[in-house]
Amino acid sequence: MPHFLFATGIENSSPTVDNGRRRVDEMGSCRHYELWREDFALAKELGVGALRYGPPLYKTFLGSDRFDWEFADLVFGELNKLGLIPIADLCHFGVPDWIGDFQNPDFPELFASYAKAFAERFPWVQLFTPINEMFVCATFSAAYGWWNEELHSDQAFVTAIKHIVKANLLAMKAILIVRPDAIFIQSESSEYFHPSSPKAVERAHFLNERRFLSLDLNYGHSVSAEIYRFLMDNGMTEAEYDFFMGQDLKRHCIMGNDYYGTNEHYVAADGKASFSGEIFGYNEITSQYYWRYQVPVMHTETNFEEGPKGYEAVRWLYKEWANVLHVRKSGAPILGFTWYSLTDQIDWDTALREDNERVNLLGLYDLDRRPRAVGRAYKELIAEWSEAMRTGSVCMMVPLGPCCV
Hints:
It comes from Methylocystis rosea. By secondary structure, the chain is of the alpha/beta class.
């Protein structure tokens, strides 16, 4: 793995919605199945070294020990030919119909078998995100009731999080059997909850402890007494908790921290949370996560909606990049930066719950594969900073683009 990775990704979310009646496939919505060669060529031209990418799990994993590798063979063969490093994104918010959802206790073992089969099929792949944004996946599926099982309870959330993290851990172990030098990049949302009232302080404190849950379990980090009680009260057994605390996989991991303008929240007196916009920012919140786990860091997702002049997204790019440099200056080893995704997305403004076919202007390229202003700015940023990040000879001034002066 290079010393520092500039990356982008192909959005490959595939949850089910409407009580399982409809599957949202962002690769299909954004025409990647038709234009994958062009998408890879754009990524190569952009200058990124890595691409967060994976075949659709629901189309590839057809049953126990049954796989359809036709599309995966084509696309990963092309990535290898182009010299783009894939960060293999194996499960992105959805599972095949025959597995059901994240309440299924068989999911961890089944997913581990898929991960091992993938590693055997593509033994040259070294970097993996077995399950993307474990905390978000469990929250949206089993706490908010938006996706997949569409449940809305603490017990459903705990069930989902324990199955998702166990699946992630078993997948890492399975891949390491095939590729002992595999590196796992946990792309995980970095959150913070601000109390907006003295009456909200206790609830905000609880939510700020709970935000760490997926990574606590993944890295074998003891949870607080309050969170332990929450887990035990909602269906986790002592034996299950001991399983998570007994794992020793952190040394194979890079902690990917995702940050958007929606990652910080106000907590009201009634306990309800709403988006606060950026208050602390990536530097402060990522530092909290880093010092908790002391695992090398990568900025694995960010984006911003392009406005009428295109400057809003460019400003966000340079601001996030400045935060990456500040994280590095603070002493945390940060190994990469990602604008996500390569192209615009569809219906993420409703978290994929509504089929509006609304284009969200979040990509480096639009859906006709024309560069956006942020795409041109990212290409320039990569060209200007790659050598300095590779050698470590980095000036810590905040980088400003021409439209950010």
